[in-house]
Specification:
Shape: flat
Order of helices and strands: HHHHHHEEEHH
Oligomer: single chain
Number of strands: 3
Protein backbone atom coordinates (compact mmCIF):
# COMPACT_ATOMS: atom_id res chain seq x y z
CA UNK A 1 0.00 0.00 0.00
CA UNK A 2 1.37 3.37 -1.01
CA UNK A 3 1.98 6.05 1.56
CA UNK A 4 0.47 9.51 1.28
CA UNK A 5 3.76 10.93 0.01
CA UNK A 6 4.08 8.25 -2.67
CA UNK A 7 0.50 8.84 -3.80
CA UNK A 8 1.14 12.57 -4.13
CA UNK A 9 4.28 11.85 -6.20
CA UNK A 10 2.29 9.56 -8.50
CA UNK A 11 -0.47 12.15 -8.94
CA UNK A 12 2.10 14.86 -9.67
CA UNK A 13 3.88 12.66 -12.22
CA UNK A 14 0.59 11.80 -13.93
CA UNK A 15 -0.31 15.48 -14.22
CA UNK A 16 3.05 16.22 -15.80
CA UNK A 17 3.23 13.37 -18.36
CA UNK A 18 -0.48 12.74 -18.89
CA UNK A 19 -0.33 8.94 -19.16
CA UNK A 20 -0.38 5.99 -16.78
CA UNK A 21 2.72 4.35 -18.24
CA UNK A 22 4.71 7.58 -18.26
CA UNK A 23 3.76 8.31 -14.65
CA UNK A 24 4.64 4.73 -13.72
CA UNK A 25 8.11 5.11 -15.27
CA UNK A 26 8.71 8.37 -13.41
CA UNK A 27 7.39 7.07 -10.07
CA UNK A 28 9.00 3.64 -10.27
CA UNK A 29 5.77 1.67 -10.09
CA UNK A 30 3.31 -0.03 -12.45
CA UNK A 31 0.66 1.50 -14.69
CA UNK A 32 -2.07 -0.39 -12.82
CA UNK A 33 -0.98 1.16 -9.54
CA UNK A 34 -0.96 4.62 -11.13
CA UNK A 35 -4.49 4.09 -12.47
CA UNK A 36 -5.72 2.89 -9.09
CA UNK A 37 -4.22 5.91 -7.31
CA UNK A 38 -5.63 8.35 -9.86
CA UNK A 39 -9.09 6.79 -9.76
CA UNK A 40 -9.11 6.93 -5.99
CA UNK A 41 -7.99 10.56 -6.03
CA UNK A 42 -10.66 11.58 -8.53
CA UNK A 43 -13.31 9.77 -6.49
CA UNK A 44 -12.62 11.97 -3.50
CA UNK A 45 -9.58 10.37 -1.96
CA UNK A 46 -11.46 7.82 0.12
CA UNK A 47 -10.58 4.16 0.08
CA UNK A 48 -13.10 1.98 -1.77
CA UNK A 49 -15.53 0.31 0.58
CA UNK A 50 -14.98 -3.41 0.80
CA UNK A 51 -17.86 -5.81 0.76
CA UNK A 52 -18.23 -7.76 4.00
CA UNK A 53 -16.42 -11.07 3.82
CA UNK A 54 -18.60 -14.14 3.84
CA UNK A 55 -17.97 -17.01 6.26
CA UNK A 56 -18.89 -20.63 5.97
CA UNK A 57 -20.75 -20.44 9.28
CA UNK A 58 -23.06 -17.55 8.37
CA UNK A 59 -25.91 -19.98 7.77
CA UNK A 60 -25.89 -21.21 11.37
CA UNK A 61 -25.05 -17.92 13.11
CA UNK A 62 -28.66 -17.37 14.18
CA UNK A 63 -28.88 -20.92 15.50
CA UNK A 64 -25.76 -20.45 17.60
CA UNK A 65 -26.91 -17.05 18.86
CA UNK A 66 -30.22 -18.55 19.97
CA UNK A 67 -28.61 -21.44 21.82
CA UNK A 68 -26.11 -19.14 23.51
CA UNK A 69 -28.96 -16.88 24.63
CA UNK A 70 -30.99 -19.83 25.88
CA UNK A 71 -28.11 -21.26 27.94
CA UNK A 72 -26.89 -17.89 29.23
CA UNK A 73 -23.58 -18.25 27.42
CA UNK A 74 -22.68 -21.59 29.01
CA UNK A 75 -23.05 -24.00 26.12
CA UNK A 76 -19.83 -25.25 24.52
CA UNK A 77 -18.94 -25.37 20.83
CA UNK A 78 -18.46 -29.12 21.08
CA UNK A 79 -22.04 -29.57 22.25
CA UNK A 80 -23.39 -27.24 19.56
CA UNK A 81 -21.48 -28.69 16.63
CA UNK A 82 -23.83 -31.67 15.96
CA UNK A 83 -26.83 -29.34 15.77
CA UNK A 84 -24.92 -27.06 13.43
CA UNK A 85 -23.97 -30.02 11.23
CA UNK A 86 -27.62 -31.00 11.04
CA UNK A 87 -28.48 -27.44 10.04
CA UNK A 88 -26.04 -27.58 7.12
CA UNK A 89 -22.72 -26.38 8.52
CA UNK A 90 -19.88 -28.02 6.59
CA UNK A 91 -16.90 -26.07 7.90
CA UNK A 92 -14.16 -27.04 10.31
CA UNK A 93 -14.64 -27.32 14.08
CA UNK A 94 -12.08 -24.56 14.52
CA UNK A 95 -14.12 -22.03 12.56
CA UNK A 96 -17.21 -23.10 14.47
CA UNK A 97 -15.45 -22.51 17.79
CA UNK A 98 -14.67 -18.98 16.61
CA UNK A 99 -18.34 -18.39 15.87
CA UNK A 100 -19.41 -19.66 19.28
CA UNK A 101 -16.77 -17.57 21.04
CA UNK A 102 -17.91 -14.45 19.16
CA UNK A 103 -21.56 -15.05 20.03
CA UNK A 104 -20.66 -15.57 23.68
CA UNK A 105 -18.77 -12.28 23.75
CA UNK A 106 -21.79 -10.51 22.27
CA UNK A 107 -24.09 -12.10 24.83
CA UNK A 108 -21.83 -11.20 27.77
CA UNK A 109 -21.58 -7.63 26.56
CA UNK A 110 -25.38 -7.27 26.51
CA UNK A 111 -25.90 -9.18 29.77
CA UNK A 112 -23.14 -7.89 31.99
CA UNK A 113 -23.97 -8.40 35.66
CA UNK A 114 -21.74 -5.56 36.78
CA UNK A 115 -19.80 -5.29 39.97
CA UNK A 116 -21.04 -3.85 43.20
CA UNK A 117 -18.82 -1.10 44.64
CA UNK A 118 -17.04 -1.89 47.86
CA UNK A 119 -18.85 -0.55 50.91
CA UNK A 120 -16.63 -0.64 53.95
CA UNK A 121 -17.57 0.06 57.53
CA UNK A 122 -15.16 1.88 59.84
CA UNK A 123 -12.59 -0.58 61.15
CA UNK A 124 -13.90 -3.48 59.04
CA UNK A 125 -10.93 -3.93 56.70
CA UNK A 126 -7.24 -3.41 57.37
CA UNK A 127 -5.07 -2.61 54.33
CA UNK A 128 -1.36 -3.36 54.71
CA UNK A 129 1.59 -3.11 52.36
CA UNK A 130 5.38 -3.26 52.34
CA UNK A 131 7.79 -0.95 50.57
CA UNK A 132 11.56 -0.70 50.37
CA UNK A 133 14.08 2.05 49.77
CA UNK A 134 17.84 1.61 49.89
CA UNK A 135 17.70 -1.65 51.85
CA UNK A 136 15.28 -0.27 54.45
CA UNK A 137 11.82 -1.87 54.51
CA UNK A 138 8.75 0.16 55.42
CA UNK A 139 5.47 -1.34 56.63
CA UNK A 140 2.26 0.69 56.26
CA UNK A 141 -1.26 -0.06 57.49
CA UNK A 142 -4.56 1.80 57.42
CA UNK A 143 -8.14 0.96 58.37
CA UNK A 144 -11.17 1.73 56.23
CA UNK A 145 -12.52 5.23 56.92
CA UNK A 146 -9.61 5.85 59.28
CA UNK A 147 -7.52 9.02 59.42
CA UNK A 148 -4.63 7.28 61.18
CA UNK A 149 -1.70 5.87 59.20
CA UNK A 150 0.54 3.31 60.90
CA UNK A 151 4.16 3.19 59.68
CA UNK A 152 7.06 1.10 60.99
CA UNK A 153 10.54 0.30 59.67
CA UNK A 154 12.16 -3.14 59.53
CA UNK A 155 15.17 -4.96 58.10
CA UNK A 156 13.18 -7.61 56.21
CA UNK A 157 9.61 -8.48 55.15
CA UNK A 158 9.34 -12.01 56.51
CA UNK A 159 6.31 -13.44 58.27
CA UNK A 160 8.22 -13.55 61.55
CA UNK A 161 8.96 -9.85 61.28
CA UNK A 162 5.38 -8.98 60.34
CA UNK A 163 3.41 -11.13 62.79
CA UNK A 164 5.39 -13.01 65.42
CA UNK A 165 7.64 -10.29 66.83
CA UNK A 166 7.63 -7.51 64.32
CA UNK A 167 5.58 -4.58 63.14
CA UNK A 168 2.30 -5.56 64.84
CA UNK A 169 3.98 -6.06 68.23
CA UNK A 170 3.72 -3.15 70.63
CA UNK A 171 7.22 -2.87 72.15
CA UNK A 172 5.96 -0.87 75.15
CA UNK A 173 3.73 -3.76 76.24
CA UNK A 174 6.53 -6.29 76.35
CA UNK A 175 6.52 -9.75 74.83
CA UNK A 176 2.78 -10.16 75.28
CA UNK A 177 1.90 -7.76 72.49
CA UNK A 178 -1.59 -6.26 72.62
CA UNK A 179 -4.18 -6.46 75.33
CA UNK A 180 -4.92 -9.95 76.52
CA UNK A 181 -1.81 -11.37 74.83
CA UNK A 182 -3.01 -10.72 71.27
CA UNK A 183 -1.33 -8.50 68.70
CA UNK A 184 -2.87 -5.45 67.07
CA UNK A 185 -2.07 -2.05 65.68
CA UNK A 186 -0.35 0.09 68.31
CA UNK A 187 -2.38 3.05 69.49
CA UNK A 188 0.24 5.75 69.42
CA UNK A 189 3.09 3.47 70.60
CA UNK A 190 5.97 2.18 68.55
CA UNK A 191 4.70 3.50 65.25
CA UNK A 192 4.37 6.90 63.63
CA UNK A 193 0.74 8.03 63.44
CA UNK A 194 -0.71 10.96 61.56
CA UNK A 195 -3.95 12.58 62.64
CA UNK A 196 -5.93 11.54 65.70
CA UNK A 197 -6.61 8.08 67.13
CA UNK A 198 -9.62 6.46 65.56
CA UNK A 199 -12.05 4.07 67.33
CA UNK A 200 -11.57 1.67 64.45
CA UNK A 201 -7.97 1.09 65.48
CA UNK A 202 -9.03 -0.25 68.86
CA UNK A 203 -11.56 -2.51 67.16
CA UNK A 204 -8.84 -4.69 65.62
CA UNK A 205 -7.11 -5.28 68.93
CA UNK A 206 -7.79 -8.53 70.68
CA UNK A 207 -9.90 -8.30 73.78
Amino acid sequence: MKSARERMDIISAYREVGSYRGAAAVSGTTAKTVKRVIDRHEAGGGAPRRAPREHNYDGVAELVAGRVEKTAGRISAKRLLPAARAAGYAGSPRNFRRLVATQKQVWRKDNHRGRRPAVWSPGEHLVIDWGSEGGLHVFCAVLAWCRVRFVRFALDEGADTTLARGVFRDPRRGAGGGAGGSDGLPEGRGGREQGHPDPGLRAVRGA
